[in-house]
Amino acid sequence: MRMLVFPYGFDCEPIIRHAGLLEPCYEIAALVSPGGWGLSAKNIAVGNDGTVLPVYEDLEEVEEEFDSLFIPEFEVDEVVENRLINKMMTLIPNISTVICAASLTAENRKRLEELCYTCVPSCKFIDISVNKKVEEYGLTVSSEKYPSVNPLSIPVVVIAGTWEKTDKFEISLSLRERFMRDGFKVSQIGSRHECEMLGFHSFPGFMFQKDLDGIDKIICLNRWLIQIEENEQPDVILITIPGAMQDFNEKFTRGFGLLHHLVFQAVMPDVILMCTFYLRESEKALEELSMSCKYRFGAPVDMFHMSNLFIDFQESEERNRIVTNSIYREMVSETVAKDFSNSSVPVFNGVDSQECDRMYEMLMEKLMPKDVRAVI
Question: What is the pLDDT of residues 16-34, one digit of tens each?
Answer without folding.
Answer: 999 999 999 999 999 999 9
